[in-house]
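Response to reviewer comment R2.3. The reviewers asked that we include at least one raw input/output pair. We reproduce the pair for Mannosyltransferase here without editing.
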Amino acid sequence: MDTKLPAKGTRTQPAQSEPKKTADINKPDKQTERGPHPEVISAQIKDVLTVLLMLRFANALCVRTFFQPDEYFQALEPAWSVAFGRDSGAWLTWEWQHQLRSSLHPVIFGLAYKAAHSLMSLLRFFPPLEAFLLVALPKVVQSVFAALGDFYTWRLAMDIFGRQSNAPWAALWMTVLNPWQWYCSTRTFSNSLETTLTIAALCYWPWEVVGDAKVTKAAPLQSRSSVNSLRISLVLAAVAVLLRPTNLLIWISILTLTLTRFTLDGTSPIQKTSLIVLSREIAICGSAVLAVSLASDRLYFGFWTFPPYKFLYFNISQSLAVFYGQMPWHYYLLQGLPLLTTTFLPFTMIGLYKSTSSSSDSLTTPQSNILKTLSFAVISMVATLSIISHKEVRFIYPLLPILHIVGAPYITAFFTTKPPAPDTNTPNPNLSQLVVLRRKFSLANIISINLLLAGYLSLSHQPAPISVLNFLRTDFERLHPESLTLDALTANTTNELFALFLTPCHTTPWRSHLMYPTLRARALTCEPPLHTAPGSLERATYLDEADRFYAEDNTDGDGDGRSEYGVRFLSEEMWPLVASNDDGKQQQQQQQQRGGEMPRYIVGFEGIEGAVLKRFFEGEDAPGRDTGVELRRVWSAWNGAFNEDWRRRGRLVVWDTGVYPGSFSG
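Raw output as returned:
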């Protein structure tokens, strides 16, 4: 492992800071002793980035499954409203109605939607083709961010370990082969963009501030290139914090160790002038990003607001985050980190332990201090988030590139061995001697397991919520060719409710896949109890719409609540009995009829067919027998081998109610 830390004068081109000492074996000359020419290094950087862009583009197109609703409802739905207006049918959840989210993230996709729609309208694209391309567009945009995240992981590892070390390449292969990365990096989560911003900011961060004064000699942050690198880092970090306020924990940890040098080796190189520069740039860059964010939120919401404050107020002060689930304190230790790193977990844990427990003989003091600082950020963030009741793996996703970097030297040492010394009679070692693999069977098993996990999760685990919307959209195009426009103001409206989703809340994407504003649909909602006080009985007994649908409505006391649910909800809330006048009779006589709008299609998991739909629509005593509904399956799809939520188990099914002409005949 190379123990020379790259010079900080070239932070914007870190790959050139430590020239490789292995020359072109076919052209031995004086350049051999100095390493590759800078143009060769630059070409290598471009080649790596190009390959990563191509890889993540393919990755984005391969992900055909549903994971978590925030991918759509916290990014693409507000983005759709940005591009096509508030009347476009986008589903804006309560977070957007109460300004908990920054508009910076959805604006990226909103502008992409707007630009693509304008271009395709100019070229007069066939509406179904335009819809097909717009469905794929966000994934393509996100694939660029995913590739950049991989790229900056490699660059930071190269800055730390040096060009001659194999550890940077190990970090690159870890991030490329990680199943979580394949499954989530091209999804439009704010956490995915946060991860890229974080590792890019860490790559540009002036790491000489945690170095050793005896090694660095000059005080840090005194050159123009170093200050410019700091500015890029601070801007990226500020955006990440505005997207996800918990990202601040990473930067507090880094600044804490930088200023206190707790557990760090050597003497601090920071002088008074360095502190002044650091404080000045934090204030200037932070204020600039904050001003841009405030302006963006003012344009999006229509008034001045500060989403990070609202985010912390509702989720912490009002304790609304627990409404979406609570996890034990050890969730991130026993589930979060293993899910993030999968087969690489042992190497990342060894890396965290080694970097925090002692200094390695194979590392210089600056290298050791950098790894200690990064590891301290991981430990601090995991420990702090473990205190909060509501936990999700993606909340610690920004730590994954750091875990790859700290684990890279140990996976390198485990699977490679020191190459034999080259023949002194030849000017260059043979290329095959640069890396000598060992434990190849174990390595093959790790790669195979990762590929199998990535393939199953991306293609086969919960694909139905995506494919059902493709079915609904294409069938709408068949039935209503006159209404195929994305402009809500010029669209020919239809009178029918096209689809009713009797599924757990946010089981499928929405307008980003349904597209047309005239394709009207209805789904069960799950708004939190904003009107209740924390700890109150009203909050403890609150049931949202989806909860009320799945609540036990067993009236005969046999205790089989799971098999009998939903009928009461359909009878009292979806299609209640309402009074109406029969004008055909001489005397005005009140009659009871089922109110509410009947859909063309009902969408749900197959478990509700016998437990709910047949009990409501069929049989002599069925409450909805007089609605004229005759259910018929017209579409179904497999939804994975397992699901931890019993409500989502089984195939996803579409039933035609038969109340509208032109029923699906395929």
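The CA atoms of residues 555 and 564 lie 9 Å apart. Residues 1-33, 429-433, 556-562, 584-589 have pLDDT under 50 and may be disordered. Further pairs are available on request from the corresponding author.
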